[in-house]
Design a protein that fits this description.
Blueprint: E1 2-11, H1 15-26, E2 31-34, H2 40-43, E3 81-85, E4 90-94, H3 113-119, H4 125-140, H5 147-152, H6 157-168, E5 173-175, H7 182-189, H8 217-223, E6 227-230, E7 233-240, E8 246-253, E9 259-272, H9 275-290, E10 302-303, E11 307-313, E12 332-335, E13 344-349, E14 360-366, E15 373-377, E16 382-386, H10 389-410, E17 413-414, E18 423-424, E19 427-428, E20 432-433, E21 453-455, H11 470-486
Helix pairs in contact: 1-8, 1-11, 4-11
Bound molecules: flavin-adenine dinucleotide.
């Protein structure tokens, strides 16, 4: 087996990994990043859109795995979108250099300060709202759609209808910032540049317009000359050595998932940024396989960020519905968070099916009052998730309240077309928690019972943050790595 020594290793190239890499590289440290997915930019393979799913559509699957309309067969390829299926919930994640930023909707939402304080009582909220969130907005290139463009553009009929209906039902709406470049979007509308958001590109990757991490944090980190990214390198397990260094078993694969090389990586410092599910799998599986010590808090306080999908059919069918043409980039939301009885935020989501289906899709984000727990089953060699209908009961109640109120004011029915009985309780895009900051780690993400192991990704957030999570994940990673570097952890 090839043996590679690297002083600092980062596993995963999503938000947490990209922030850690940039700040360490800027501090003059050499960083090696291992990513199980493909480096799409380097490969030159284009991303496919939702109407013609191709190579990028799914991680080694024979069929597409979008939340609905999976009628397309595929040749297995290391695609960008993966789904982990549990008994009561399916969790979608991004794979590839850039992690979730390749497949997500780009919604860049700062959490409500009151909720942030409730979730992270030990963090200095003022510092986050004055320093880290503005920093993250700048680095991620967050911007907002022009109101006039939104008003005129046929591709945003679904948003205009969604907002109009919400107001009629007595709900408050908000404009949602995004990392998609809206100046690019205005040009693509005029056909001055190739189309991406208007060409049903998003969950299998965007060829243009979207400022995913490969265009922001990772690009800057590579420009320092201190970062090496090894794609198609999947970490199987981690072993703690007597001298407190780590040894990793790693499989390098080709794009059909076949192992082409087994490698061993040794490192002094190890940063886990494999995403909530990836990091938990590595910690829990390594505990079973190599006796990696893990703290009793690992796996606890897991949540789906209150994700609950629902939809309505027969939305303005006689006046153009939600539109045959739809941008894939959401820009509208309904903010019902301050309602004591039914607190939720919902994205007015696109449904770009290439025809007018007069259907409105919503991804609700609710509080998570009952948390779940992740463990590892040594027999099946898979993660177990303690999570069932009892965890989503209140979310379902909120969705029911929302849909009824919208239908009473505007007409329409609960969408049986999209989901069994109209509710997608099992759709999760935002897995969070399991390695909570200050519980399973110290105040800056250093894992309890370890000297040289850090977690910097969504698993630090205790299961809920009340809005789409990547802005918070990025800000927490900035805060942690700044303090870890200041404390000479990587000296
Ligand atoms: P990730 O971004 O998940 O990155 C982890 C990386 O680690 C991945 O690239 C993975 O391949 C790699 N990895 C995992 N295990 C291993 C291993 N063993 N070896 C090597 N590499 C490994 N959030 C928002 O804020 N706004 C949105 O609009 C939004 N839309 C979304 C839409 C979809 C369809 C999905 C799936 C998610 C969406 N999200 C959105 C959620 C957001 O993308 C995630 O919360 C975020 O990407 C998590 O960041 P992370 O740093 O924790 O890890």
């Amino acid at each position: 087996k090839e043996v590679i020594d690297a002083p600092i290793l980062v596993i995963g190239s999503g938000y947490g990994g990209a922030v850690s890499a940039l700040r360490l590289c800027e501090a003059g440290k050499k960083v090696v990043m291992l990513e199980m997915g493909l480096n799409w930019e380097k490969s030159g393979i284009p991303f496919s859109n939702m109407l013609k799913p191709g190579k990028s559509a799914a991680w080694l699957k024979k069929k597409t795995i979008a939340p609905f309309m999976n009628i397309f067969s595929l040749t297995p390829f290391t695609g960008t979108l993966d789904r982990m299926d549990f008994e009561h919930i399916n969790i979608w994640v991004g794979r590839g250099v850039g992690g979730g930023s390749l497949v997500n909707g780009g919604m860049a939402v700062t959490p409500k300060e009151s909720y942030f304080k409730e979730i992270f009582p030990d963090l200095d909220a003022e510092k986050f709202y004055n320093t880290y969130f503005p920093l993250v907005h700048k680095e991620l290139k967050v911007n907002v759609i022009g109101e006039q463009f939104l008003k005129d553009c046929p591709y945003y009929q679904f948003t205009r209808v969604g907002e109009e209906e919400a107001h009629k039902a007595g709900f408050k709406t908000i404009r949602v910032p995004n990392v998609y470049d809206f100046q690019y979007m205005e040009k693509e509308y005029k056909n001055e540049v190739p189309r991406s958001a208007f060409n049903t590109e998003v969950i299998y990757g965007n060829n243009h317009g979207k400022n995913s991490l490969d265009k922001t944090y990772l690009k800057k980190a590579l420009e320092t000359g201190n970062l090496e990214i090894l794609d198609l390198h999947c970490v199987e397990n981690i072993k703690l050595n007597d001298d407190k260094t780590y040894t990793l078993n790693v499989q390098q694969t080709d794009t059909s998932g076949v192992v082409v090389s087994d490698k061993i990586f040794n490192c002094k410092k190890l940063i886990l940024a494999a995403g909530t599910m990836g990091t938990l799998k590595l910690l829990l599986q390594s505990h079973a396989v190599t006796s990696l010590p893990i703290h009793e808090q690992i796996g606890k306080n897991w949540g789906n960020n209150g994700n609950f999908m629902t939809g309505r059919n027969w939305v303005k069918p006689l006046s153009g519905g939600t539109g045959a043409k739809q941008s894939t980039i959401p820009v509208g939301g309904i903010d019902n968070w301050d309602d004591k009885e039914h607190p939720f935020f919902t994205e007015i989501a696109p449904l770009p099916m290439g025809m007018d289906v007069a259907t409105a899709l919503y991804l609700l984000i609710n509080r998570v009052d009952k948390k779940g727990e992740v463990s590892y089953d040594v027999n099946t060699k898979k993660l177990n998730l303690d999570w069932d209908q009892s965890n989503t009961a209140k979310m379902r109640e909120n969705a029911d309240y929302f849909i009824k109120k919208m239908n009473r004011a505007n007409g329409g029915t609960r969408s049986h077309f999209l989901f069994n009985n109209g509710f997608g309780a099992d759709v999760c895009y935002h897995p969070l928690g399991g390695c909570v900051l200050g519980k399973a780690t110290n105040a800056y993400g250093k894992v309890n019972d370890h000297d040289n192991l850090y977690v910097l990704d969504g698993s630090l957030i205790p299961g809920t943050i009340g809005v789409n999570p990547f802005v918070t994940i990025t800000a927490i990673a900035e805060y942690c790595i700044e303090n870890l570097i200041r404390q000479n952890e990587f000296a």
